[in-house]
Write a structure and sequence with these properties.
- This protein is mostly beta strands and about 120 residues long.
- Strands 2, 4, 5, 6, 9, 10 and 11 form a 7-stranded mixed sheet that branches.
- It is globular, with a radius of gyration of 13 Å.
- It contains no helices and 11 strands.
């Protein structure tokens, strides 16, 4: 029911910052909790951050706490992931995902809709 398109990935040096955006189609964006996931080559897809329908509640993986910030704009139908103090181990394809629930989940299996992904590469 919702189409997701990520953007904002790229190549940055360690310690740098990037902001990822996920644009959602339709008029039902506010009905979904949203999440950001990432997947590095040879590794499983892992949760990065989640945000509730309203944006009032956010959750982060321990590996990114204090460095990444998830937010959403329900007027623009967009969710963001602000990434700071990037490390080489942050290198991955980052995916935006949506689930028809009030709150975000921690497992990829809990999300119904996915974007195509955007590559983030952090050089040392």
């Amino acid at each position: 029911q919702v189409q997701l398109v990520e953007s904002g990935g790229g190549l940055v040096q360690a310690g740098g910052s990037l902001r990822l955006s996920c644009a959602a189609s339709g008029r039902t964006f506010s009905s979904y909790a949203m999440g950001w996931f990432r997947q590095a080559p040879g590794k499983e897809r892992e949760i990065v951050a989640g945000i509730s329908r309203s944006g009032a509640r956010t959750d982060y993986a321990d590996s990114v706490k204090g460095r990444f910030t998830i937010s959403r704009d329900n007027v623009k139908n967009t969710v963001y992931l602000q990434m700071a103090s990037l490390k080489p181990e942050d290198t991955a394809v980052y995916y935006c995902a949506a689930r028809p629930s009030a709150y975000s989940g921690t497992s990829a299996d809990e999300y119904d809709y996915w974007g195509q992904g955007t590559q983030v590469t952090v050089s040392s």
